[in-house]
Amino acid sequence: MGYSKIVGLGHHVPETVITNEYLASIMDTSNEWIVERTGIHERRFIDPSKDTVANMAAKATRMALERAGLTEKDIDLIVFATITPDYFFPGSGVLLQRELGLEGIPAIDIRNACSGFIYALSVADQFIKNGTYKTALVVGAEIQSTALDLTTRGRSTAVIFGDGAGVAILQPSDKPGVLSTHLHSDGKYAEELYVRDPGSSRPRSERQPEQILDTSTYKVYMNGNQVFKHAIVRFTEVIQEALDANDMTKDDINLLIPHQANLRISQYIQQKMGLSDEQVYNNIMRYGNTTAASIPIAMSEAWAEGKIKENDVICLAAFGSGFTWASALIRW
Fold it and tell me: Which of 12, 20, 289, 315 is labelled catalytic?
């Protein structure tokens, strides 16, 4: 088996900027309250008349292809991570395939929430390493804004999430690129961060929208204390697991790109591991939590800013709903 490497990165975020001040004008919150608890200053919301999960992913893909010197026709595998697909089914992978004008290639959909991009990267890495495919498109894209309760009742989650898409393109390499990936889950905590409906394990009457009066179970529920408590432990564990697997230490990390869930979590991990400011990349202040899209958006921006250079060791880490957590170590 050979190796896979990332040859292109791209991202796309909607045009509409939603500031903390705007949210404070429509619910009982404030810029100070949001920044203190999350580190977020603004986020992007889609225009439902023109934006979709698939077409945002397509725009991110075209950026990545241009940077890599490739065309759509080079792609022979799509692995698409999202928990907010354009349709309940089919998944957004085939919709992206259609957007890109491709036919016949496989499209795999991944539903691992905040860990989704690393799970998708791991899947694509295996297919590239074993020679099954030559150019894999790995996608994280989400639209959270249209499901948010933009009232005081929903502020605990409404101030956190945003929309966007990011992608990475993988190809074979004779030198190590993706060094290792590490995936975990613990379903005991599935209901600590979830959207209950539309779920299938319901009486028929509860799956018929015209009969539903209580729509509260269609909203995001998050036990913030539980999520934070588990995240700070699992993040550290899974980063260390990646380092141990490659006989490295935290000093070998040139850049840690954590899932952008909460700036407080990222800062805690940085302090716990003794990493410098130059070793950690955060952009949650601009985009909020974009779930599966957060890591590829951050990677794409970090690369464009010159923070990812040849031969650098890049660590990706995520924790989220499921609970799931994952890491990847990459030699650029």
Answer: 289
114 is catalytic: yes
Active-site residue flag, 225: no
- Tens-of-pLDDT digits for all 332 residues of the chain? 789 999 999 999 999 999 999 999 999 999 999 999 999 999 999 999 999 999 999 999 999 999 999 999 999 999 999 999 999 999 999 999 999 999 999 999 999 999 999 999 999 999 999 999 999 999 999 999 999 999 999 999 999 999 999 999 999 999 999 999 999 999 999 999 888 888 888 887 777 766 666 777 777 888 888 988 999 999 999 999 999 999 999 999 999 999 999 999 999 999 999 999 999 999 999 999 999 999 999 999 999 999 999 999 999 999 999 999 999 999 99
Q: Out of 20, 41, 112, 114, which one is annotated catalytic? A: 114
Q: Which long-range contacts (CB under 8 A, 24 or more apart) does 124-129 make?
A: 124/4, 124/77, 124/79, 124/170, 125/4, 125/170, 125/178, 125/181, 127/77, 128/2, 128/4, 128/170, 128/171, 128/172, 129/1, 129/2, 129/3, 129/4, 129/172
Tell me the C-alpha distance between 309 and 325, whole Å.
26
Is position 311 annotated as part of the catalytic site? no
Q: Which of 112, 230, 259, 282 is catalytic?
A: 259
Ordered structural domains, the chain, with CATH: 3-175 (3.40.47.10), 179-331 (3.40.47.10)
